[in-house]
Structure formats: structure tokens, C-alpha cells
């Protein structure tokens, strides 16, 4: 394989796929088995990222409970995350097979969020929208600042499990046990501030003109990169985290001791992966809406 065939696009995951060439009598070692696994994982992630895109595929609802029974600090604000599937910003699938109960939110992140509130000149006042109310006119957080919000993010994580004995040593030697399996798992992170709004404007101007699709515009969008990297072969972002929800906090000083309380969970800034099933349902709704009220 020459240098041009193995060339890597700058800063992206777009590389020439490399897989095993099997033949009778070939010596198979750890490198070649790892090469085969990397080949499939790499293509899967690259196609997921460029074709489907990052976002929640299904599930992963986020709800809150004020107190955590059984925790070391029972009054710690906690959230529950439902089982589900997502694709991270690098195209890797994230599978949460069962509900995650009583996930505590670190107090330092809550304090940081409330300090951001003070920077923007506001107090941590309770929101009228409790639970999962959709954003309203009073939800203009881009102008009011972070306003006591903490982001809940999910990420891809690999765990080495199922330890097995090492039956043959190598030049470095000394290792008698190693993980026999890699479990593709998940992890959570919390950040002070508000998640970015989802842009619902069309990024392909004049793609539909006088009721007809302008195919040239589609070709340009797929082929020619722009300065914002919204077209062409998009660069893989540095961070792979996926926002799930924004949690709003207030400081309750009505009791004997002040405590942090959750007064709202907003899941409407999460990014959704547009599956074929979802796009088909959206298309059906557009067709029915075009027919008018007597559909």
C-alpha cells in the first residue's frame, strides 16, 4: 500500500480502511485480530457520524427526584435517566441497557452554576415550569445568561472486563492476567451553563424553488466545504459528549439549612438522531398538512 492510499485527512476520522488479507498459513497474532476489530468499528463510527449524525436515537429521558434515599447525603439533588440508545459526536453508539436511578449531581457544579447566575445579575429564582415543560417565551436564556443551569451529558466509555490468565508472555513479560472482554459502556458528565439551542434553519438555501428540488444545490452542499464546516466532509469535533438535558437549580433557604433544589428539567435542547422512521413520520405529517383540515 503506497503513501497516498494510506493518507489521512487532516483532523478527521476519514482514513483509508485497512483490513486483513486472509490466506492459508498466515500467522494471526493480537495485532491482526485488533486490526479486524478496528476496521469494523472505524467504518461503523465514520458512517454513523456522516450519514445519521449525532443525537439521541430513542429513550434516555431525564427526570428528577428531590431527595436521594440511601445516599450518604440524603438531600443531594439526583436525577433518573431512562434506558435508551444514542450516537455520540464521533459516531460511536452509546447503549444504556437499563434505567439509571439516583444519579447525583456534583455540588461543585451546582455552586458554579449559581455563581454564573450572579455574574449575569440575576438571583437563583425558581422557574414556574416544573418537570418537562417545553420552553416558552420566558425561556430566553441566551440573553439572561446561564441562569443557574447545569448540563447533563452522556459519553461513550469502554470498560475492560472478564479477566483471564495470560498463557504466553511477551518480551515485556510479567503480566499474568488481562481483560478478556471490552464492554462498550457509557459515562456521564455535568457542566455549568446552558446547552446550545438546536438550529432549525435550513442550511441549504434555495434547495426548493417553485415547488421543485434544486438538485445542484444538494450537490454543492454535499461536495463543497464551507468556512463553517456545515457542508462537504465535516470535520470530527474534538469533544464527543452528547447533551441530554439542562437541569435548573434554586437555593432553598426556607428550612433550617439552605439546600439546592431542582425546579426544572429541560430535555428540549438535546440533539436527536434523525432515523429513517422519524423522517418518514415527519414526511407523512407534511403531506397531511398540505391536504388541509379535511384530511
Q: Descriptors for this entry?
A:
four-stranded antiparallel β-sheet, three-stranded antiparallel β-sheet, 12 strands, alpha+beta, 295 residues, flat, disordered N terminus
Question: How would you characterize this protein structure?
Answer:
With about 300 residues, the chain is α+β, with helices and mostly antiparallel strands. About 20% of the residues lie in helices and about 30% in strands. It has helices at about 30-50, 105-120, 140-145, 215-225, 275-290, and strands at about 55-60, 60-65, 80, 85, 95, 100-105, 150-165, 175-190, 210, 210-215, 240-250, 260-265. The chain has a four-stranded antiparallel sheet. The radius of gyration is 24 Å and the shape is flat.
What is the structure about, briefly put?
By secondary structure, this protein is of the alpha+beta class. 22% of the residues lie in helices and 28% in strands. It has five helices and twelve strands.
Major sheet: 4 strands, antiparallel
Number of structural units classed as domains: 1
What strand order characterises the main sheet?
8-7-11-12
What is the terminal separation in angstroms?
60 Å
Mean pLDDT: 81
Continuous helix count: 5
Uncertain stretches: 1-10, 120-138
Structural class: alpha+beta
- Binned, the helix content reads 10-25%
Q: What series of H and E elements makes up the topology? A: HEEEEEEHHEEEEHEEH
User: What integer value in Å does the Rg equal?
Assistant: 24 Å
Strand tally is: 12
C-alpha geometry: flat
Strand fraction band? 25-35%
Amino acid at each position: 500500500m503506497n503513501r497516498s492510499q494510506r493518507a489521512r485527512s487532516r483532523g478527521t476520522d476519514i482514513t483509508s480502511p485497512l483490513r486483513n488479507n486472509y490466506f492459508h498459513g498466515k500467522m494471526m497474532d493480537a495485532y491482526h485480530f485488533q486490526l479486524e476489530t478496528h476496521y469494523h468499528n472505524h467504518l461503523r463510527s465514520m458512517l454513523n457520524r456522516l450519514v445519521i449524525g449525532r443525537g439521541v436515537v430513542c429513550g434516555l429521558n431525564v427526570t428528577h427526584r428531590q431527595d436521594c434515599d440511601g445516599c450518604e447525603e440524603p438531600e443531594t439533588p439526583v436525577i433518573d435517566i431512562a434506558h435508551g440508545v444514542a450516537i455520540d459526536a464521533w459516531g460511536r453508539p452509546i447503549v444504556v441497557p437499563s434505567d439509571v436511578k439516583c444519579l447525583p449531581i456534583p455540588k461543585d457544579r451546582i455552586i458554579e452554576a449559581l455563581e454564573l447566575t450572579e455574574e449575569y445579575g440575576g438571583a437563583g429564582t425558581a422557574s414556574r415550569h416544573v418537570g418537562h415543560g417545553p420552553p416558552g417565551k420566558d425561556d430566553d436564556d441566551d440573553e439572561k445568561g446561564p441562569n443557574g443551569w447545569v448540563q447533563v451529558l452522556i459519553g461513550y466509555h469502554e470498560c475492560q472486563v472478564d479477566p483471564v490468565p495470560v498463557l504466553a508472555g511477551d518480551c515485556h513479560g510479567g503480566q499474568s492476567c488481562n481483560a478478556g472482554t471490552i464492554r462498550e459502556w457509557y459515562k456521564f458528565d455535568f457542566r455549568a451553563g446552558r446547552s446550545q439551542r438546536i438550529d432549525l434553519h435550513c442550511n441549504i438555501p434555495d434547495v426548493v424553488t417553485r415547488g421543485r428540488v434544486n438538485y445542484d444545490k444538494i450537490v454543492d452542499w454535499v461536495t463543497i466545504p464551507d468556512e463553517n464546516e456545515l457542508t462537504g466532509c465535516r470535520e470530527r469535533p474534538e469533544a464527543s459528549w452528547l447533551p441530554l438535558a439542562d437541569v435548573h437549580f434554586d437555593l432553598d433557604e426556607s428550612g433550617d439549612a439552605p439546600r439546592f433544589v431542582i425546579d426544572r428539567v429541560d430535555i428540549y435542547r438535546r440533539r436527536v438522531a434523525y432515523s429513517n422512521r422519524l423522517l418518514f413520520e415527519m414526511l407523512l405529517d407534511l403531506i397531511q398538512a398540505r391536504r388541509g383540515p379535511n384530511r
